[in-house]
Specification:
347 residues; alpha+beta
């Protein structure tokens, strides 16, 4: 699967930036900047913000995202940005929330044979996209929103993550009582359950729930379609490669559930295998008002690559071993490949 369109789009985007913008946007490929993303709205961001980009620069930024993501993934990203605009309207707070408060950084030099990547970081939208030759790792991926449905204002009608919500629900309902008793960790969901969000790169997570080996053929297909909804945010070619890898480990793929299983229930579900970790979580409201109970109006979802390959770290480590790259490279930044791998690693 060629990554040339992504290389070309990143090169064009970088070329459109001023020297000062470019300086803020560029980091070494193994910089710890990768791991400083945050799905919350408060931390200071690096890189160049959509809020300061010209129309032409914004177009090139979206071209980069469009070359890297599927049409579905690009639409989801744009809709999350719009819903952050809706949140600004609802909270009447345009300094903390807004459609353009998202930042892009480029790690390394866009290249068809050397490792590099890009990141978008902002409230409820984080994409990490690592490239080495024709290989791509698109994780951690964080998508979410509050609200998830704009019922008023400039972006009225925008709604996200309903398919992901419904597919998980359909799967739990397809299980017989014995299977459900294995899958459901707790029927009680008083708060937030997501574990693999920001700053959880070395999360050690045991498998839990029901393995796909205990599912029938149609349930296994449903599990794969849940996974595909998340993996399918990536460009179709690389998503296909990833899904082939997922299928190889299907028997060791676990599905876990927290919450009730009524049509209006709030819940959390997790899909976990040696090659993929997905979490979907109904969360408590935070803004423009707080709730003590989780609600369908605030969703967090995350996709990670277990066993050290988030941010392509394992690929990068392999690349350094093969090329003794770090000694010849001569860049003065600390190399991040000596520390603990960005897991989360199942034991």
């Amino acid at each position: 699967m060629s990554t040339q369109p992504v290389v070309d789009a990143a090169t064009a985007f970088l070329a459109s930036l001023s020297d000062r913008q470019r300086q803020r946007t560029r980091f070494p490929v193994d910089d710890s900047e990768w791991r400083k993303w945050d799905n919350r709205h408060s931390p200071k961001r690096q890189g160049v913000g959509f809020d300061e980009m010209s129309e032409a620069q914004r177009k090139l930024a979206f071209d980069l995202m469009g070359a890297s993501l599927s049409a579905k993934g690009l639409k989801l990203s744009k809709d999350i940005m719009k819903l952050n605009g809706t949140l600004a309207e609802l909270a009447n707070n345009y300094t903390e929330y807004g459609e353009w408060l998202y930042w892009i950084t480029i790690m390394g030099e866009p290249s068809s044979d050397q490792p590099w990547g890009w990141q978008i970081d902002g409230h409820h939208l984080v994409v990490n996209y690592f490239v080495l030759g024709d290989q791509v790792v698109m994780s951690p991926l964080f998508v979410g929103s509050e609200p998830v449905h704009a019922t008023s204002g400039k972006f009225k009608g925008t709604i996200i993550l309903q398919d992901e919500q419904n597919a998980g629900y359909k799967l739990i309902r397809s299980l017989d009582p014995e299977q459900q008793s294995q899958a459901i960790l707790s029927t009680d969901k008083p708060g937030n359950n997501a574990l693999a969000q920001a700053y959880q790169d070395n999360l050690d997570l045991d498998y839990a729930g029901i393995p796909a080996s205990k599912l029938n053929e149609s349930q296994r297909e449903q599990l794969l379609s849940v996974i595909e909804l998340f993996v399918g945010n990536q460009d179709p070619g690389h998503a296909k490669v990833k899904m082939a890898e997922v299928k190889q480990h299907l028997d060791r793929t676990y599905f876990a559930w927290v919450g009730q299983t009524e049509p209006d229930s709030v819940y959390y579900y997790r899909v976990h295998s040696p090659v993929v970790l997905i979490e979907f979580d109904h969360q408590r409201r935070v803004a423009p008002f707080r709730t003590s109970e989780p609600t369908r109006d605030h969703i967090h979802a995350v996709l990670r690559t277990p066993n050290g390959n988030d941010y392509g770290k394992d690929l990068l480590r392999q690349h350094y071993l093969d090329h003794d790259h770090s000694h010849k490279h001569g860049d003065s930044h600390d190399h991040d490949h000596g520390d603990a791998p960005a897991k989360p690693s199942p034991r």
